[in-house]
Amino acid sequence: MESRGGRCFMKKKIDLFLILALPLFLITLSCTRMEKEMYLFVGTYAKESDDGIFLYRFNTEDGSATFANKVSGIGNPSYLALDKDETLLYSVSEASTGAKVFAYSFDKQTAGLRLMDTCETGDGGGGPCFIWVDSERKLAVTANYHGGSISIFPLSSTGTFGVPTVYSYEDGTPGSSRRKAPHLHCIYTSPDEKYLYANDLGTDRIYKYDICSGEFGVKKLQAGQPAYFPLPAGEGPRHTIFHPNGKFAYLISELSGRVAVLKYDNGNLTPIQYIEADSLHAAGSADIRTTPDGRFLYASNRLKGDGLAIFSIDPESGMLTKVGYQPTGKHPRNFIITPNGKFLLCACRDTNIIRIFAIDRQSGLLTDLQKDIHVSQPVCLKFASL
Questions:
Q1: What is the DSSP annotation of 198-227?
Q2: Nearest CA among 61, 54, 68, 69 for reference residue 35
Q3: I need a labelling partner for 279 at 20 to 30 A (CA). Which of 47, 136, 198, 309 fits?
């Protein structure tokens, strides 16, 4: 027979367990709830006087979205980037003259965005269409389409811009309106962030740089060896994404409409496959993404047959097999996949919608959820944790 003292002792143990376990349970419950929603940033083409950057809360379980905030005062914020902590939002202002970059502080509790800094790209020709920020928030780089250059900004400890250094490029193909001069379109790094690459649509080159540490912890770029990787004439390289395993990269070329599978090895990119994404040859291919599990790849095509080419990925060789095609709204310039791999969101510029698709995890095929987000001329999508 259990004594009264024994019962009291057991009760105290249970009470102590509940006191210790309850906070952990609440934290776990809170994290579970938070994972069901994310912030969705939307960059657009817009006049400076109009709303240009939009912010939504996106439910990653059912694919629904609710409006959270918007920002005006920036013309054509066509590409966005977040720092690693997701407390700063960077944006280009894509203009042919007086092109600039903007930095906003981001308050996750209130969904607030406050302008911190702005700086001209200093490249002359303008047209910044891409911005990248390193994981340590020491360096920002823009790809300047019309300027045929990249602008490298040192970042302060608070994330504001220093005076940019501009690298301009030369060469081109006479007689071709889109290839007679350099047109830089994308900035990205190797998975270990030792190397930076710049895709030049105009000269069919991928430029390579070593990311080096200078005095006082400042980061800088140094021409790589080789300085660039040449591609077949007429490719028009646009955007590149690395496979989650870091062994392969995938390049979508705007002019050829092909995806190149690139083997990655210690900074070097070697093509091992070219496969058609745009069967209509409209010279309007735009963006490229893989699912988080690395099983499927998608590439967007514009101008004719607007939609997404769907490929399966061989897990060993990284090679692609085309498995389908999904029509979208008009001019699918950019798209993004939720971190849980359930949904693909496609920014359809000329239909003024973000179309939301469910991803079939077995086939990679897409289903339109009929839950479009209506926003004027969306061209860039970025997620941030809530």
A1: EEETTTTEEEEEEEEE-GGG-EEEEEEEEE
A2: 61
A3: 198
Using one digit for the tens of pLDDT, what is the confidence trace for 341-371?
999 999 999 999 999 999 999 999 999 999 9
Task: Decide if 338 contacts 319 (C-beta within 8 A).
Answer: no
For 192-224, the pLDDT digits (tens) are: 999 999 999 999 999 999 999 877 678 899 999
Pairing of strands 237-242, 248-253: antiparallel
pLDDT above 70: percentage of residues in the chain = 89
* Residue 216 backbone phi and psi in degrees, to 5: 60, 30
Total residue length of the chain: 386
pLDDT score, position 213: 85
What is the token pair recorded at 335?
Answer: 């798209």
Give me 254's structure tokens.
Answer: 């705007």
The answer to whether 119 and 156 have CB atoms below 8 angstroms apart is no
Predicted confidence (pLDDT) at residue 11 exceeds the cutoff of 70: no
Per-residue pLDDT, 178: 75
| Encoded amino acid at 144, one letter | N
* pLDDT for 32 beyond 50: no
- CB 285 within 8 Å of CB 301: yes
Task: Tell me the β-bridge partners of 210.
Answer: 195, 222
Q: Are the beta carbons of 332 and 306 closer than 8 angstroms?
A: yes
Query: Strands 165-168 and 149-154, how do they pair?
Result: antiparallel
DSSP 228-296: EEE--TT--EEEEEE-TTSSEEEEEETTT-EEEEEEEETTEEEEEEEEES-TT--S-EEEEEE-TTSSE
Closest of 234, 226, 228, 158 to residue 202, by C-alpha: 234
Tell me how many degrees the CA angle 114-115-116 measures, rounded to the nearest 5: 110
- CA dist list (Å): 203 to 59, 255, 365: 41, 12, 34
| H or E segment to which residue 95 belongs | none
Q: Which residues contact 261 (CB under 8 A, 6 or more apart)?
A: 248, 250, 271, 272, 273, 274, 275, 318, 319, 320
Look up residue 292 and give its two tokens: 């988080």
Residue 37, token pair as written in the block: 């929603």
pTM of the model: 0.90
